[in-house]
Amino acid sequence: MSQPTCRFCSAPLRRTFVDLGTSPLANAYRDPAAAAEPEVFYPLHTYLCDGCFLVQLPAVQSPEEIFRHYAYFSSYADTWLAHAEAYAAAMVERFHLGSDSRVVEVASNDGYLLRFFKERGIPVLGIEPAQNVARAAEAIGIPTITEFFGRSLAQELAAGGRRADLLVANNVLAHTPHLNDFVAGLALALAPGGVLTLEFPHLLELIEHNQFDTIYHEHFSYFSFTTAHRVLAAHHLEVFDVERLPTHGGSLRVYARHRDAGGESVSRRVTALLAEEEAAGYLTLDPYRGFAERVRATKRALLRFLIEAKDAGKRIAGYGAPAKGNTLLNYCGIRTDFLDFTVDRSPHKQGRLLPGSQVPIRPPDAIREARPDYVLILPWNLRQEIVEQMADVRDWGGRFVVAIPELEEIP
Ligand SMILES: [Zn+2]
Fold it and tell me: How far away, in angstroms, is 56 Cα from ligand 1 center?
């Protein structure tokens, strides 16, 4: 492969952020009947651009290959649905959306979010390239275009008079390999007085809370607020507000509009967060150094725990089959030698194998039948919800464990 270059500023990428070895695509859940088939592993090597400080993973596969059959259905996570509903209510009120407005969501998944606007009588349009999830959205009455978003599709929307008064790009900015084409598309698809909101995991949280497992092939870019602000500005979009959210271990919700649009004044939160990142050194190399060694220490701690538990004859099951769990298990080399199985509420994952590690995925009741000594929670961002749902694990003396931010038995 030729020398990778930064997907925003085109500078050559020379500096490793963290190298997690090789892994299959994190959402490539496997059919057990095909378990003997070869499986393709790709490098999971992230770089820091020393020109613009964008942390990034060079694309190893086309978005077509990665996202056409995306197995993640947003509607299976209760916390996530509550987040979506609260977002819809807040946007309708703040920006006075009504039956004459249009809400367009990029990466609209199974309609988990747009349905809350539709319920309020607001016209909606989803854009979702994964055909299986887009069909689920259509089934609940959410019109959905099954294409990848970028400049070309945005031009079609604009030409057809379908620009957005509220353009939602939640948890998709990080997933786009063609960053400049994508953001140019956002600018084109936004009505003159429209509002764009973006949500993405905050790089500061990733670094400070050791969330290295959120690095996987579907996530191409990892943004500080400063870098995101800079990317939007390059496409004539002005950030006028920002909020910190607890989702995905700590995300930002950024509000932007056309640079000349006017409207409410730029929030003090914008300048405060830019200043905070600068004070924390995020415009220097300092905070990025040392991350890779912390990741390796986390691997050693988890393996030490698993080895000791197995030596003591303990049985260990996983909870959850999130993409991030696959990064963790494949980076650490954990298979059914340590984890007997994992469970997931999504029927689309049950009965399949985790990519790489080949750990079988069962329904949550499998834990109640097997009564393992330890339950390793893979989606650590949902740990509270899972401990409550599975409270009966403690009835037989079972313990919950998480590996991130550091190895912990949950008291
Ligand atoms: Zn760059």
Answer: 9
The structure tokens listed for 390 are: 């599975």
**Is residue 333 within 8 Å of 312, Cβ to Cβ?**
no
What letter would DSSP give residue 381?
G
Contact yes or no for 44/215 (Cβ under 8 A): yes
pTM: 0.90
Residues 177 and 220: their CA atoms lie apart, in Å, by: 6
* Residue 9 CB-density burial (10 A; 0-12 exposed, 13-18 middle, 19+ buried): middle
Report d(CA 155, CA 216) in Å as an integer. 30
Phi-psi bin for 180: left (phi > 0), alpha (psi -120 to 50), beta?
alpha
What is the CA(281)–ligand 1 centre distance, in A? Answer: 17
Beta bridge partners, 400, equal 375, 410
* Residues written for the chain: 411
CA of 381 to the centre of ligand 1 (A): 29
CA distance 397 to 217: 37
DSSP result, 316-354: EEEE---HHHHHHHHHHT--TTT-S-EE-S-TTTTTSB-
Q: Is 173 exposed, middle or buried (0-12, 13-18, 19+ CB in 10 A)?
A: buried
Spacing, Cα 331 to ligand 1 middle (Å): 26
pLDDT in tens, 148-193: 999 999 999 999 999 999 999 998 999 999 999 999 999 999 999 9
Please give the structure tokens belonging to residue 357. Answer: 């590690």
DSSP H or E stretch at residue 103: strand 103-106
Structural domains of the chain, with CATH: 67-279 (3.40.50.150), 291-410 (3.40.50.720)
CB–CB of 91/154 below 8 Å? no
Q: Give the Å distance between the CA of 91 and the centre of ligand 1.
A: 32
Two tokens, residue 275: 């200043």
Give residue-wise pLDDT tens across range 184-217: 999 999 999 999 999 999 999 999 999 999 999 9
Helix, strand, coil shares, percent, the chain, to 5: 40, 20, 40
For residue 103, list its beta bridge partners.
124, 166
Kindly write down the DSSP assignment for every residue of 10-72, as one continuous string: --B--EEEEEEEEE--TT--B-GGGTTS----EEEEEEE-TTT--EE----S-HHHHHTT---
What's the rounded Cα separation, in Å, for the pair 183 and 317? 41
Distance of CA 13 from the midpoint of ligand 1 (Å): 8
